[in-house]
Amino acid sequence: MAIPKILVVDDDVELCDMLASFLAHAGFMVHTAQNSDEIRSHIASTRIDLILLDVMLGEEDGIALCKELRATQDVPIIFVSTLSSDQQRVAGYEVGADDYIAKPFNLELLLARTKAVLRRGRRSSSLNYRRDTAEYHFNGWRYLGKTDEIISPNGVQISLSKHEIRLLKVFLANPHIALTREEIIAAMDVTQDSTTYENASGRALDVLVGRLRGKIEQNPKSPDLLRTERGVGYIFSADVSRLDE
């Protein structure tokens, strides 16, 4: 349920910024890079769910870079390039690219193909999500993925509704990140259980946040964990650690 993070890699700074802005407005979290060192830095420091990679990065070869990344990473990679011959496309697929889009391109087509690649990856990860038995810790609290139970710092089990559990999972997956109401609602629908959050409105979400605060905050009227981010939405202000079973 984490908001997908996309890394846009292009040595054309103007194009890179334009793509980043477009994808951010489409609901993704976006990072940018201009070279291989910056790519490695992003991968080492944060979760990246998909890379949009230019084939020609100045003096660097995107094909070779993709091959190098594939040796250690399974992150989906879409090539974006002015080189659109069949030979170039084949070369891209042979080193492990998930898709190949030729410049110039239609932004809506790029968005559709980006979503399609992410969905393909999500199909397999969704099965792992259903089997997730990890235990999450935050501010003395414990969330048990195996049983969907939450335990307070003093050892008391707190009952959460189905939607409260969904909401909590979104925040546990995105700690210290300001999320808009639209991003939260979208993430709540990506629960891999074939159901949707039917009360998909900002007001309904605010009510749900209030209910969750009432169960996990020491003072719900002055929350320390689930804070309102003025002009944005909400932010989960706690370090989250995951312990796999």
| Sheet of most strands | 5 strands, parallel
Q: Roughly what is the average pLDDT, rounded to an integer?
A: 84
- Can you count the helices? 8
Q: C-alpha Rg, in Å?
A: 20 Å
Element order: H for helix, E for strand: EHEHEEEHEHEHEEEEHEHHEEE
Uncertain residue ranges: 123-131, 190-195
Instruction: State which percent range the strand residues make up.
Output: 15-25%
Helix content: 40-55%
List keywords for this structure.
245 residues, alpha/beta, Rossmann fold, Arc Repressor Mutant, subunit A, five-stranded parallel sheet, five-stranded antiparallel sheet, elongated
Write the layout of secondary structure elements.
Elements lengths: L4 E5 L3 H13 L3 E5 L2 H10 L4 E5 L1 E2 L2 E2 H9 L6 E5 L4 H9 L4 E4 L4 H24 L4 E4 L2 E4 L4 E3 L5 E2 L3 H12 L5 E2 H9 L12 H15 L9 E4 L3 E4 L4 E3 L2
Parallel strand pairs: 1-2, 1-3, 3-6, 6-7
Antiparallel strand pairs: 4-5, 8-9, 8-15, 9-10, 10-11, 12-14, 13-14
Helix pairs in contact: 6-8
Write structural notes for this entry.
This protein folds into two domains: 5-128, Rossmann fold; 160-243, Winged helix-like DNA-binding domain superfamily/Winged helix DNA-binding domain (Arc Repressor Mutant, subunit A, Orthogonal Bundle). 41% of the residues lie in helices and 22% in strands. It contains eight helices and 15 strands. The chain has helices at 13-25, 36-45, 62-70, 86-94, 107-130, 162-173, 181-189, 202-216, and strands at 5-9, 29-33, 50-54, 56-57, 60-61, 77-81, 99-102, 135-138, 141-144, 149-151, 157-158, 179-180, 226-229, 233-236, 241-243. The two termini are 20 Å apart. Mean pLDDT is 84; it is low at 123-131 and 190-195.
